[in-house]
Amino acid sequence: MALWRGSAYAGVLALAVGCVFLLEPQLPSLPLRSLWSSLPLSPASPGPGSPEGRLAAAWDALIVRPARRWRRVAVGINACVDVVLSGVKLLQALGMNPGDGTDHSILHSRNDLEESFTHFLGKGAAAERFFSDKETFHDIAQLASKFPGAQHYVGGNAALIGQKFAANSELKVLLCGPIGPKLHELLDDNVFVPPESLQEVDEFHLILEYQAGEEWGHLKAPHANRFIFSHDLSNGAMNMLEVFVSSLEEFQPDLVVLSGLHMMEGQSKELQRKRLLQVVTSISDISVGIPVHLELASMTNRELMSAIVHQVFHAVTSLGLNEQELLFLSQSAAGPHSSLSSWNGVPDVGMVSDILFWILNEYGKSEGRASDLTRIHFHTLAYHILATVDGHWVNQLAAVAAGARVAGTQACATESIDTSRVSLRAPHDFLTSHSEAGSRIQFSPDEPVVKWHRERVSFHFTPVLVCRDPVRTVGLGDAISAEGLFYSEVHSH
Predict the structure, then answer these.
(1) Which portions of the chain are predicted below pLDDT 70?
(2) Which residue, among 225, 221, 185, has the nearest Cα to 202 in the 3D structure?
(3) What is the DSSP string of 236-305?
(4) For residue range 281-331, what is the model confidence (pLDDT) as tens digits?
(5) Residue among 82, 354, 418, 478 flagged as catalytic
(6) Residue 133 is among the residues annotated as catalytic for this protein
(7) Prediction pTM value
(8) ω into 77 cis (within 30 of 0)
């Protein structure tokens, strides 16, 4: 832990912290981390010799393209237009005041919106909800779309992942989803949209953003994040599933990315059951040897999540998810640490590792199980972990580093890591497991990717250089998963 001691930028206080680390390495680390985070660094102080600068340089040396690269990527099936604006200002314009926050799994009214937004702003956590009242949603959406400072972006996990892939000119990208005129206009020219995917009206999602430290009444947001809601029937019914599947035969992809299952939360149980069966059948029809990545998103319906775990996981090759989705998944399927109601601050690495191992051990590929699942890309604000079943993926060290790097650049809207605008918030040391005797690992910014094994599963961990003043938080998870996949290579058996 004395590795943080050497920064000349922190002056005398940094040297004092370093001495404490050196002389008393067994002291509780949390107060020392808090002391480090309080160092009065000027905005321009982090440079090449800082932990952030050293980590960014080490990433650049590690991130190399795989020997065998994707040529054609097919992505589906949720797409929309994101209307991004200040959540606090919109709710104030609607005449709302913060009360007691309550999480509503489905929003039925303006009051439900106010209570849910309050709940998640207080936690600094992201969430996505379905708004059931069409007329009320339309009225709010009209106000939001014309609101001063409101911006329109490509939205929906599939469209965002497709857009990220399309930034690489050598890749051909197919996107299927409900694509209206505004979304079509916003898409990269390198994204091919089948004519059957085009529709006359766009689906709008409202993205209510808030900044770290932003206040609303008695509340103060601990982190920058967003609250998303929509009345989206096309994506909710997965109307473009059949179009997506029928397009694959002609497009001939070597990688398929699927997302949007969470949008079914607003549908009946019968429709959910029927569509999940059709999803599994559709995936099974994809040619053997073509990996299928499933991107998860915020959910509240445990029954639907459990069905996805038990019915869909075995059919896909790879998963992408964040800390909320991981814990909710474990709670829905009686996994490790499922008694935990929510994460307290930065998710514990050992607990995350336990759940990732459980998913691959229970639902992943093995000799006695008919499953294709061999890879999980987990991302949270402070760090990422790539977990893979041995013998199926290569270049994962570069993949996890690339995913973490893009989190910092995209959030800050920079081409490369600007060390004056990011900070290192990952734990300096951690246990790799709480379910068994895990190893204690101390992290060094000069070796930013840490690897460990547990039975037949390999774990790659790297911190994130967190943008101090993010320009935009929406779509970070999708960009992370796309970048991680871009640098990944699957073994051909």
Answers:
(1) 1-48, 493
(2) 185
(3) HTTTTHHHHHHHHHHH--SEEEEE-GGGGGGS-HHHHHHHHHHHHHHHHTSPTT--EEEE------HHHH
(4) 999 989 888 999 999 998 999 999 999 999 999 999 999 999 999 999 999
(5) 478
(6) no
(7) 0.82
(8) yes
